[in-house]
Design goal:
With 127 residues, the protein is mainly alpha-helical. The protein is 65% helix and 8% strand.
């Protein structure tokens, strides 16, 4: 990625330097309703205008992507919430399975519960 950035940046920088060297003349800049004027080299006025345009375009593009960033942020929050809820549900399911296993486990050596009016049954003996 750095290599691609270098391939793009170096020619642009060389072009800007060559432009500045060949356009050293002075130009007077003024904005009609204001009484102020500014004398600046042509290259400086041009490069400042390009930089301002680049920044304005970046701000417009960044603002246009606001909706997508908001949706991505909300989706990320939702994923974290659902992952936490899943872990809690898995923990509850594991606890319920453990309780069920304890309840269905046969107890060795214990007699079966007596039914009302009948004596308690004991485990059968082998002769």
């Amino acid at each position: 990625m750095r290599f691609i950035a270098l391939i793009i940046t170096v020619p642009i920088a060389i072009a800007a330097v060559l432009f500045a060297i060949s356009n050293r003349g002075v130009v007077t800049l003024s904005l009609w309703p204001l009484p102020f004027t500014l004398d600046a080299p042509v290259y400086l006025a041009t490069l400042v205008a390009l930089a301002v345009g680049f920044l304005a375009g970046g701000i417009v593009a960044w603002n246009a992507q606001r909706r997508h960033r908001r949706r991505a942020r909300r989706s990320t929050d939702r994923v974290f919430y659902l992952e936490r809820e899943l872990k809690e549900t898995q923990a509850r399911a594991a606890a319920a399975e453990k309780r069920l296993a304890e309840q269905t486990r046969p107890v060795s050596g214990a007699s079966l519960p007596a039914i009302a009016g009948q004596p308690a049954a004991t485990a059968p003996t082998v002769h």
